[in-house]
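Thread title: Can someone regenerate the structure for this chain?

I was given the following input by a collaborator and told the matching structure tokens would be attached. They weren't. Posting the sequence so someone can regenerate them.
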Amino acid sequence: MSNQHVVVIFPHPDDESFGAAGTIAKFREEGIPVTYLCGTLGEMGRNMGSPVFANRETLSTFRKKELDEAAKQLDINVEYLGYRDKTIEFEPLEQMADHLKAKIESLGATTVITHYPGFAVHPDHDAMGAAVVEAVRQISPSARPDVWMHAISNGHEDQLGSPEVVFDIRPYWEKKLAAIKAHLSQVDGMMGLIQGQEEQLERLKTERFYTYTFES
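Best answer:
Regenerated them for you:
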């Protein structure tokens, strides 16, 4: 299936920048529209700037503005799904799947990028990935988008093998870095540490995804 619309579905503002910004930039360079369906406003995030400039009451406002700036850097559309940070694992799977299926179909997604459930570290990541899989499963096989899954847990390749989709995103590194830095409340200070760690920095310059295979 040729790509007509790529839909990225992660739970938090900044997931798109760390996990897929280079891939997003590649698609946009090819003229393919990209929409980010962001699950939450990240209102329970632990970082609030360095020095601190937000609290739990105001953090969501800052994180929304930060995602708006990251989206501007990446030239993508953003829609918010309206879930609450750190509670996605408690949402009924079928209801989430119905919600996501409607969004995916209305956007005419041909590729969906999400987290690999069970290999994504954070409960919100795992739950969102599982809901995406169920949503796409319910779509007619002839109309199903491809599903690319981002695994980030330590040692995941020991269980999953090598990912099928691997992009060297060095040509898009400046766009990815600008998108990451837009999320100031979460990365200010941290990027300085990463930039001093060549191995971690190099890891961010390759984006890897597993393709999900549906049995029927």
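The longest helix spans residues 59-74.
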